[in-house]
Amino acid sequence: MARAEYRPRYGSENYSYVLPMEEGFSSAWSTQWMQDYWQHSVTISIAYVVLIYAGQKYMESKKPFALDSALFWWNMLLAVFSLSGMVRMAPEMFWSVNSNSLVYSICTASFAQGVSGYWTEKFAFSKVFELIDTAFIVARKRPLIFLHWYHHVTVLVYTWHAYKDHTASGRWFVFMNYTVHAFMYTYYALRAMRLRIPKQVAMFITVLQILQMIIGVSIGVTIYRIKSSGGECQQTWSNLYFSFAIYFSYFLLFCNFFYHAYLKRNNRYVAASKAIANEILPSADETHVKSNGTVPTVTNGTSNGTLNVSGEQDNLTNGYANHEMMANGHLDYNGNCGGRRSKGNSTTSSKQSTDRSDDSEMESNSSAPHSADEAQASPTKTRRQSALVAETLIANHHRRSVKAQKQ
């Protein structure tokens, strides 16, 4: 279904400058390669899921890797890449709508050539590299949930399936995804630096993601009507049904996430946290209470969030131990954290774990302050004292869990 030439189109000559790599892009070669090998996206996805399981199994007996610096640079790389793609795709995107029509923008794949074609190809291949996001989560023993890996797998397969036929609506899909990811990965990079970002920022990015799904479903409905009435639109029926399935499922999952993360009170996060805290920390005495009124909770042998005296827990984001929850599929709105239920005490299994603690609350070990004044004057020492308490609890709880499993 892909074509060798599209007219009219926003060619390289319309750009004020063209990079050498963009100038040398061959749409014909790229399209032929994808037509021959797009099925490998399924193979890669299967291997990805297997490696997730193997990685989590391996990390069960290991300490989390300290990858803050690597995580920052990885997210910055993806943020810059996404921003570059958005900027380079924008002229062609706006031209397709303003100088032509909305129908042209979703039914004619002229974006597959020239500068926009180069960044479309790179977008398709970037979905493989974005799987590395999950490696950071597994290596750092952060919560990994269905929405995260489902999103990665389905986007990869759909993108390759759409690219091989120059699916015209891909123009919108690519541009919107570049835009959302530019914000999202910038946010992740800042959080990797342990900066506290207002909750509203995470909510804004989640809203952008939901809006992307609404637009995707709306475009699909429009294309369906055009094709059903006998009109021409460059998208196969199989790809159209595929897009309906994933966009609608994303919409439901992200909306559900948004509700449980930002709107619902007394949700399962708090309930699970209380259950864990009551078993592992039956009394929050002064030795265990931090100066800000929170105590560390522990699950499955790892530090797992901060619970204040009233039983309220901070909502975290994206499995990278951030303060806000965000709908990128990195934290389970059902209170699940992607781990496997232990054979011993199910209350302390990772299936009942909720949020991970903010990295800024867990510094290296040090001596603790002995008064409120000293704690206020030395917040760093207070955090270190909390980390020491948490590590002691972790060690004791891990020994009890191992002993219970042996029995």
From TrEMBL:
<keyword id="KW-0808">Transferase</keyword>
<feature type="transmembrane region" description="Helical">
    <location>
        <begin position="202"/>
        <end position="226"/>
    </location>
</feature>
<keyword id="KW-0472">Membrane</keyword>
<dbReference type="InterPro" id="IPR030457">
    <property type="entry name" value="ELO_CS"/>
</dbReference>
<dbReference type="Pfam" id="PF01151">
    <property type="entry name" value="ELO"/>
</dbReference>
<feature type="transmembrane region" description="Helical">
    <location>
        <begin position="37"/>
        <end position="54"/>
    </location>
</feature>
<dbReference type="GO" id="GO:0019367">
    <property type="term" value="P:fatty acid elongation, saturated fatty acid"/>
</dbReference>
<dbReference type="GO" id="GO:0034625">
    <property type="term" value="P:fatty acid elongation, monounsaturated fatty acid"/>
</dbReference>
<keyword id="KW-0443">Lipid metabolism</keyword>
<keyword id="KW-0276">Fatty acid metabolism</keyword>
<dbReference type="GO" id="GO:0042761">
    <property type="term" value="P:very long-chain fatty acid biosynthetic process"/>
</dbReference>
<feature type="transmembrane region" description="Helical">
    <location>
        <begin position="66"/>
        <end position="90"/>
    </location>
</feature>
<keyword id="KW-1133">Transmembrane helix</keyword>
<feature type="transmembrane region" description="Helical">
    <location>
        <begin position="169"/>
        <end position="190"/>
    </location>
</feature>
<dbReference type="GO" id="GO:0030148">
    <property type="term" value="P:sphingolipid biosynthetic process"/>
</dbReference>
<feature type="compositionally biased region" description="Polar residues">
    <location>
        <begin position="290"/>
        <end position="309"/>
    </location>
</feature>
<protein>
    <recommendedName>
        <fullName>Elongation of very long chain fatty acids protein</fullName>
        <ecNumber>2.3.1.199</ecNumber>
    </recommendedName>
</protein>
<feature type="transmembrane region" description="Helical">
    <location>
        <begin position="238"/>
        <end position="259"/>
    </location>
</feature>
<feature type="region of interest" description="Disordered">
    <location>
        <begin position="288"/>
        <end position="309"/>
    </location>
</feature>
<feature type="region of interest" description="Disordered">
    <location>
        <begin position="331"/>
        <end position="387"/>
    </location>
</feature>
<comment type="pathway">
    <text>Lipid metabolism; fatty acid biosynthesis.</text>
</comment>
<feature type="transmembrane region" description="Helical">
    <location>
        <begin position="144"/>
        <end position="163"/>
    </location>
</feature>
<dbReference type="GO" id="GO:0005789">
    <property type="term" value="C:endoplasmic reticulum membrane"/>
</dbReference>
<dbReference type="GO" id="GO:0034626">
    <property type="term" value="P:fatty acid elongation, polyunsaturated fatty acid"/>
</dbReference>
<comment type="similarity">
    <text>Belongs to the ELO family.</text>
</comment>
<dbReference type="GO" id="GO:0009922">
    <property type="term" value="F:fatty acid elongase activity"/>
</dbReference>
<keyword id="KW-0444">Lipid biosynthesis</keyword>
<keyword id="KW-0275">Fatty acid biosynthesis</keyword>
<keyword id="KW-0812">Transmembrane</keyword>
<dbReference type="InterPro" id="IPR002076">
    <property type="entry name" value="ELO_fam"/>
</dbReference>
